[in-house]
Amino acid sequence: MLWNPKHPYFYCIGLVGISIGERTIPVPDMLPRVNRRGDDGVVVDNGTTFTMLLTSLYNAVVSEFDGQVGQLSTDEKK
C-alpha cells in the first residue's frame, strides 16, 4: 500500500502488471509508484463497481483477453 497525499482516504497501490492467463501485460512506468505530489500509482476503491485504466493499458488487456478467449473457442471446435 502506498500513501498518496492527493487521496489519503483511498487505498493506493503500485501496479506492476496485469496477468491474463499465463501472460502479464506490463503497465506504464507511472503506475508502480506514487511521487511526493501524489501523482501516479493506482487508487483502489472497493466501493466502486468499475475499474478505470489508461486507454493504452485497457486496449492491451482487451486485446490479450480477446486473443485468449478466441483461441479457446477455436480449440473447442477442433
Structure description:
This protein has one helix and four strands, in the order E-E-E-E-H. The protein is α+β, with helices and mostly antiparallel strands and 78 residues long. The chain has a two-stranded antiparallel ribbon with strand order 1-4. Strand 2 and strand 3 (23-26) form a beta hairpin. It is elongated.
Offer a quick outline of the entry.
The chain has 78 residues and is α+β, with helices and mostly antiparallel strands.
List the SSEs and their pairings.
Blueprint lengths: L10 E3 L3 E4 L2 E4 L15 E3 L10 H23 L1
Antiparallel strand pairs: 1-4, 2-3
Largest sheet: 2 strands, antiparallel
Average pLDDT rating: 83
State Rg. 16 Å
* Proportion of helical residues: 25-40%
List the uncertain runs. Answer: none
Structural category is: alpha+beta
Give the helix tally.
1
Q: Note the beta-strand portion.
A: 15-25%
Kindly state the number of beta strands: 4
Based on the model shown, name its key terms.
single chain, 78 residues, alpha+beta, two-stranded antiparallel ribbon, 1 helix, elongated, TAXi_C, Xylanase inhibitor C-terminal domain-containing protein, Peptidase_aspartic_dom_sf
